Amino acid sequence: QQFLAELDIPQDAYFLENGSGLSRNNRLSPKQIVTLLTYMYDNFAVRAEYLSSLAVAGVDGTLRRRMRDTQAERRLRAKTGAINHVSCLSGYAASQENEVFAFSIMMNGYRSGGHDVKSIQNQIGLLLTEFYRETYDADASHSKHANQRQTSASN
User: Fold this and answer.
1) Overall pTM > 0.70
2) With b meaning 16 or more CB within 10 Å and e meaning fewer, what string describes 16-27?
3) pLDDT tens-digit series, residues 90-127
4) What is the b/e burial string over 109-129, where b = at least 16 CB atoms within 10 angstroms of the residue's CB?
5) Per-residue b/e over 44-77, b at no fewer than 16 CB within 10 Å?
6) What does the alpha-carbon distance between residue 58 and residue 37 come to, in Å, rounded to a whole number?
7) Phi and psi (nearest 5°) for 112?
8) I want to staple 62 with a disulfide (CB 3.0 to 4.6 A). Which of 80, 90, 120, 130 is the partner?
């Protein structure tokens, strides 16, 4: 709770019955998950270990059979989660220019099979990895963030 408060996620905005994610009573919004993902990506002390804990599309873990032979293969890392009529995919996708997007897809209450829902999630992941921003410069973006952190640390 203290950690989420540090991320400006107020205690009354979520409910966690347990940390496993297997409870129907857990309540976190996709926006709150993206806030957490952004923090983990921007925090140098935990970034590498956190990223390596996520499945890689088309390669390993719960994503080894998903998004194979597409632009998303090896360019999307995420955690899957599912219980009856609920399917989630949250993580990071790198665009064509290596712009990294944190994302969270939560689908619930569906009546079709899980395959249809995963197919939609895969299509969204693929679109993120195919994204092209003509004006994006990955090197400048990384330098800008490093400079901002350095400036903040020295003030």
Assistant:
1) yes
2) eeeeeeeeeeee
3) 999 999 999 999 999 999 999 888 899 999 999 999 99
4) eeeeeeeebbeebbeebbebb
5) eeeeeebeeebbbbbeeeebeebbeebbbbebbb
6) 21
7) -80, 175
8) 80
